Amino acid sequence: MIFKKRTTRYNNLKAEYDQILLQEVDHARKDYHQAQDSETALVDARVNGHMVQAQTALKKARFTYLYKEAKRRKTVANGPRLYHQSDE
Q1: Distance (Å, rounded) from C-alpha 28 to C-alpha 61?
Q2: What is the pLDDT of residue 44?
Q3: CA-to-CA dists, residue 34 to 16, 30, 85, 88, angstroms
Q4: Out of 39, 43, 45, 75, which could bridge 18 as a Cys pair, Cβ 3.0 to 4.6 Å?
Q5: Are 21 and 75 within 8 A, CB to CB?
Q6: What domain of life does the UniProt record list for this protein's source (predicted)?
Q7: Is 31 exposed, middle or buried (0-12, 13-18, 19+ CB in 10 A)?
Q8: How far apart are CA 36 and CA 20, in angstroms?
């Protein structure tokens, strides 16, 4: 009986943090795609964009880390996600 309460509490806590992780992955994905678009626009304008490229690389690394963590934890999103969704 005691152990059942702990596992239930653990499952609720895991589900809560999995949901937070999915939100962070989605947010990081949107940031990364926005940074890619900004970098493309600046490269087309022939502006020295080393700082922009560094920010894009940082956002890509953050997104990749969060995505791999969600994959390792076998966390699944509730609905289908498009790769480049512009809903904002």
Answers
A1: 10
A2: 61
A3: 27, 6, 11, 11
A4: 75
A5: yes
A6: Bacteria
A7: middle
A8: 24
Please tell me the distance from the alpha carbon of residue 68 to that of residue 55, in angstroms, as a whole number. 20
Cβ atoms 63, 56 nearer than 8 A: no
Look up tokens 């994959």; give the residue. Answer: 71
Burial of 6 (0-12, 13-18, 19+ CB in 10 A): exposed
Q: Taking the domains of the chain in order of start, what are their residue ranges?
A: 15-72
Contact call for residues 66 and 21 (beta carbons, < 8 A): yes
Q: Higher-confidence residue: 24 or 79?
A: 24
Asked whether the predicted pLDDT for residue 23 surpasses 60, the reply is yes
Mean pLDDT value of segment 26-47: 82
